[in-house]
Each structure stands twice: as structure tokens, then as C-alpha cells.
Amino acid sequence: MLRFIFRLAAMVALSISVIMAVIDTTRSVAASAPVMTPLNASWLAVSPDTRAAFETYVRAKASPLVWDGIIAWVLGQPGFAVFAVLAFLLYALGYRRRRHEFAPTT
Description:
The protein is an all-alpha fold.
């Protein structure tokens, strides 16, 4: 059941990644120049309240250094790339290795 949840979350993250990539591609064609929207800008455009709440939570619970160092760097990356990496990691967690059955030799 847990593997299913990881694979489902990977599919959702991959879907978001594809949607963000299509939006960036459309903007790139319209601007005649490559456009890669940072995750922070996309998040602020969709829901600025949750972005502010997330920053407040991280600064209060973890440390301002965690926000300024790690999370700010991740939010500065293109959104489609962040979600693509997240989808890969979630899929890897939910991946089920197949067992190879060897035929006995006589």
C-alpha cells in the first residue's frame, strides 16, 4: 500500500512537472527566448498565502539558515525541474524490484 502511495505521488508530481514545462514552453515561444519560471514565482502566482505560511513555519520550526540556504535555492530552480526530480525520487521509493527466479540446473 505504501508503494502505491509513493507511485501515485510520483505520478502527480510528474503531471505537475509536465504542466509547468508546457507553460514555460508556451512562454518561450511567445517571447522568442527561453523562459524558465522559478518555482518561487509559480508558487507566489498560485497561492501567495501558503508560500508565506510555509516560510514562516520553516523559519520558526527549523532555522532561518535552512530557509536561506536550502529551501531558497530549491525555490529558485525552474519549477518543472524541481517536480521532475521529486517525481523521480518518489518513484524510486515506490519501485518494486522483480525477483529473478533461476531454473535449477541438473
